[in-house]
Design a protein that fits this description.
Layout (H helix, E strand, L loop, with lengths): L17 H8 L3 H10 L5 H9 L4 H20 E7 L11 E4 L6 H12 L6 E5 L6 H9 L2 E4 L5 H20 L5 E4 L14 H7 L7 H8 L1 E8 L5 H13 L7 H13 L3 E7 L4 H5 L7 H18 L5 H10 L11 H15 L9 H26 L9
Parallel strand pairs: 1-7, 2-5, 2-6, 3-4, 3-5
Antiparallel strand pairs: 6-7
Length: 394
C-alpha cells in the first residue's frame, strides 16, 4: 500500500526516538505524581532509572507493563482469562475490534492476555479527548498507542478519518502488526454494545478496491470483553441521571480522569476475553449488489453477533435480568445469597454518587440503569444465539 500520509502526529513513537521521549517523560511532574499514586511504595528515582535503560516499546511492554498489569490483576480482579486464541495465528495480523467497557483496561488487558500466551501485542487506538496533558500523549505513544482525533469540524473530521483509515491499513499491510480498536466511539454506558456504522465506513476508506475488499485487507476480528463488575457502574449511572436532568450535560476532563482511575484501581471481579473468528468469510458472502449503506449495516450486524455470542455471563447478569423483569427466568443460575449480595452491591455503589440532592425517583432511575448495564450482555447473547429464529424471546 502506497503511503501518501504523514502519520507522525498519530502513530506510536518509533524505536529510534523511544529513549529520547522516555527521557522527557520521566522529567514530567505529572507523570511522577501518577506513578506514585498508582504505585505508592515505588522509589520513583529508581523506577525512572529503569525506564531510561529500556531501548524500545517491545521491551517496555514486557519489562514494565507486564509486571504492572500482573500486579493490577492480582489486586483488582478475581482472575483474567482468555478464550478463542485458537482462532488466531501468531504469524498473521488482525484488526481486533471489541466492545468497550473501560477507558484504559480493555485493550491493555487484552495485550496482557497476548503476552502471557506468547502472542505479539497489538497497537491500540485511543481518543485524543483523553489526552488532556502532553505527557499522557507521550506515555501512550511510548506504549504502542495511536491517536484517534475527535471533536473536529466536518472538513477536518473527514481529513482525520482518511488519515486514520490509511494508518490502520499501514499497520496491517506494511508494519505487519495487529491493532485494537473499540467498536464505537466512547464506552457503551449501558453495555448494549453495537458497532458504529461510521467506524466501519472509516475503515473502508483506505485501499484501492471495493468497500468489502478494503475491509478484507485489515482482517477484522471481533473480541468479546466481559467484566464481572464494572467499577465505573455508579459513575455511569450518575451520568445517565445528569443527562436526564440536563440533556446538554457534558463530562469534564476531570470526569474522564476519575473514570480512568476508578477503572484501574477498583475491584472488577472476574474478567474474561474471547477472541472471535475473523469476519472475512462472512464479508466474502455479502451480496455485491448491496449499496455502501446496506453493506455497512450488514458488517455491523456480523461484528455484533460475534461479540454478543461470545460474552461470558456471570450470575449477576442473570440476577440483573430477572430483577428488571420482576421474574425468575434464570433462577437456576444463581442462589438467593448471590441475589442478596448483588442487591447490596448495587445499593453500596449508588451510595457513592456524590450529588448534593438525590430524590428517591432519581435513585430509582440510577438503580434501574445499573441493573440494565448488567442485564444487557445477557439480552444480547440471547438474541445472538437466537439469530435467524422468527421469534426472539428477550
Amino acid at each position: 500500500m502506497d503511503n501518501q500520509y504523514d502519520f507522525s502526529d498519530i502513530a506510536p513513537f518509533a524505536d529510534d526516538v523511544f529513549q529520547e521521549k522516555m527521557a522527557q517523560l520521566v522529567k514530567e511532574p505529572g507523570f511522577e505524581h501518577a506513578v506514585k499514586y498508582v504505585m505508592p511504595d515505588v522509589d520513583f528515582q529508581q523506577f525512572a532509572g529503569m525506564l531510561l535503560s529500556i531501548p524500545d516499546n517491545e521491551v517496555f511492554q514486557r519489562q514494565v507493563m507486564y509486571p504492572f498489569l500482573q500486579m493490577l490483576v492480582d489486586k483488582t480482579t478475581a482472575g483474567v482469562t482468555v478464550g478463542g486464541l485458537d482462532n488466531i495465528d501468531k504469524d498473521k495480523h488482525y484488526t481486533f475490534m471489541s466492545n468497550h467497557r473501560d477507558i484504559v483496561l480493555d485493550a491493555t488487558l487484552l495485550n496482557y492476555c497476548f503476552l502471557i500466551n506468547g502472542f505479539p501485542t497489538s497497537e491500540v487506538a485511543i481518543g485524543n479527548n483523553l489526552l488532556i496533558y502532553e505527557w499522557i500523549t507521550d506515555l501512550v505513544k511510548l506504549n504502542k498507542s495511536f491517536i484517534v482525533k475527535r471533536n473536529l469540524r466536518l472538513t477536518k473530521a473527514l481529513e482525520a478519518a482518511r488519515q486514520l483509515s490509511a494508518y490502520i491499513h499501514h499497520v496491517i499491510l506494511n508494519k505487519h502488526e495487529s491493532l485494537w480498536i473499540a467498536q464505537r466511539e466512547g464506552r457503551c454506558k449501558d453495555s448494549n454494545d453495537m458497532t458504529q456504522e461510521s467506524l466501519v465506513k472509516m475503515l473502508a476508506i483506505a485501499g484501492s478496491g471495493s468497500f468489502i475488499d478494503n475491509l478484507l485487507q485489515i482482517n477484522i476480528t471481533p473480541v468479546s470483553i466481559s467484566y464481572e463488575y464494572d467499577p465505573n457502574d455508579y459513575l455511569k449511572a450518575k451520568e445517565f441521571l445528569l443527562k436526564r436532568l440536563d440533556p446538554e450535560f457534558k463530562k469534564s476532563p476531570h470526569d474522564d480522569l476519575l473514570s480512568m482511575e476508578t477503572g484501574l484501581l477498583q475491584p472488577k471481579g472476574r474478567v474474561h476475553f474471547h477472541v472471535g473468528k475473523s469476519i472475512n468469510p462472512a464479508l466474502e458472502s455479502l451480496s455485491a449488489e448491496l449499496d455502501k449503506q446496506e453493506l455497512s449495516k450488514s458488517v455491523c450486524r456480523i461484528i455484533d453477533r460475534e461479540i454478543h455470542s461470545n460474552y461470558k455471563i456471570y450470575p449477576i447478569n442473570y440476577i440483573a435480568y430477572d430483577t428488571l423483569h420482576a421474574g425468575d427466568r434464570f433462577k437456576e443460575r444463581y442462589s438467593a445469597e448471590d441475589a442478596a449480595e448483588f442487591h447490596r452491591y448495587v445499593e453500596s455503589q449508588l451510595d457513592k454518587v456524590d450529588l448534593t440532592e438525590i430524590s428517591s425517583l432519581d435513585r430509582n432511575y440510577m438503580r434501574e440503569m445499573m441493573y440494565t448495564m448488567y442485564a444487557n450482555p445477557l439480552r444480547n447473547k440471547i438474541a445472538a444465539e437466537n439469530a435467524g429464529n422468527d421469534v426472539m424471546d428477550v
